[in-house]
Amino acid sequence: MSPKTNFAYYSKYSRKIRRNVKIKRDLFILALMIIPVLNYLVFFVYVNARSIAMAFQMTTSQGTIWTFDNFTRFFREVQIPELDISVAIKNNFLLFIEGTVIGTPLCLLLSYFLYKKIKGYRIFRVIFFLPSIISGVVLVGLYKNIFATNGPVNEILSIIFQRQISIEWMVDDNITMYCILFFCLWSGFGGGMILYTGAMNRIPKDVLEYAKLDGCSSFRELVQIIIPMIWPTLSTQLLFSISGIFVASGPILLFTKGQFKTMTLGYFILEQVEGGSYEYPSAIGLFFTLVSIPIVLITRKIFNSTIEDIQY
Q1: Could you give the count of Cα atoms lying within 13 Å of 22 in the half-sphere of its Cβ?
Q2: What is the count of structural domains for the chain?
Q3: Do residues 179 and 169 touch, judged by C-beta distance below 8 A?
Q4: Percent of the chain scoring above 90 in pLDDT
Q5: What is the pLDDT of residues 75-129, one digit of tens each?
Q6: What per-residue confidence (pLDDT) applies to 4?
Q7: Are residue 90 and residue 215 in the same domain, yes or no?
Q8: What does the pLDDT read at residue 7?
Q9: What dihedral do alpha carbons 70, 72, 78, 84 form, nearest 10°?
Q10: For the chain, what is the mean pLDDT?
């Protein structure tokens, strides 16, 4: 075999090997992608499309009909304060205020104190991060025992006021939801503290040293230096909180199962689905999705235009 023929043979053989390798690689990639793609098509595309369709459907004795009655029922029931859906909307706004308006500033302040390593900061770090480590079922059970009729809270109040206190904290229509809000506030510090302290630790020490030499107080350091420099992290957290204003449910299932005026939208939809009703909760979910989209987009635009991202 001449050198020219030999070169042509090996060149053809090499192309064949490369083609086989490419086919095997493509098949391998396809095998890896087929499961997540099917998962996306079934559990996201199909489920959401079916949910949107069910929002405009109603099952009758004659079969399934297309109607707006689910939305009509929703707008009618929202106007009656005693119904679960009205209580759920109110409680969702309370959870939003507790988590965003109250919880976020407190979490940011605690993160700043831990970042500055105040005396005893290790103990405070454990206290506020402990709820994120302990199982939610265990933590809720412990919390309910603390606020039980014969629990430590009533015992302490009895000692303070020198008379027997027997407040039913967890079974009272006027009190129970506020006890749950306090639990959510305390147990919600862990994740935010990790994010905020991590962002603060990325700030160059030189910047804070220059500010200290200029006589910058701790308050000015937090407001004028720390917050602007961790704004991408803070604004992302706030955006997530605002986007979840209508889906926040809290640990209602573990605490009361919606009793004692503690119903939330998330648990209300869960309860409806468990009862075999799909059309009505689909209409509720679709309505609040359409309400949430412009709120999130406008908030995002405001956040992006308020403070420019700082690269360091």
Answers
A1: 6
A2: 2
A3: yes
A4: 22
A5: 999 888 888 899 999 999 999 998 888 989 999 998 898 888 888 778 877 777 7
A6: 47
A7: yes
A8: 47
A9: -30
A10: 85
Confidence of residue 32 (pLDDT cuts 50, 70, 90): confident
What does the block give as tokens for 157? 């109040």
Return the closest-CA partner of residue 231 out of 196, 255, 256. Answer: 196
What sections of 116-230 are H helices per DSSP? 121-133, 136-146, 152-161, 176-187, 189-201, 205-213, 218-220, 227-229
Answer yes or no: is 184 within a domain: yes
- Tokens 């309860």 -> residue: 271
Tokens of 310: 């700082």
State how far Cα 207 lies from the chain centre: 33
Indicate if 35 and 103 belong to the same structural domain. no
Rounded Cα distance between 269 and 282, Å, is 8
Instruction: Give the residue numbers spanning the domain of 221.
Output: 71-306
Does residue 84 form part of some domain? yes
Using alpha carbons, select from 279, 282, 287, 275 the residue that is nearest to residue 64.
279
Query: Which residue in the block uniquely carries the two structure tokens 């000692």?
Result: 159
As a whole number of Å, the end-to-end CA separation of the chain is 65
Residues 191/237, Cβ–Cβ less than 8 Å: no
Angle between helices 84-96 and 176-187 (to 10 degrees): 40
> Which 3 state secondary structure label does DSSP give 302?
helix
Kindly give, in sequence order, each residue whose CB lies less than 8 Å from that of residue 155, ignoring residues fewer than 6 positions away. none
In a domain, 20, yes or no: yes
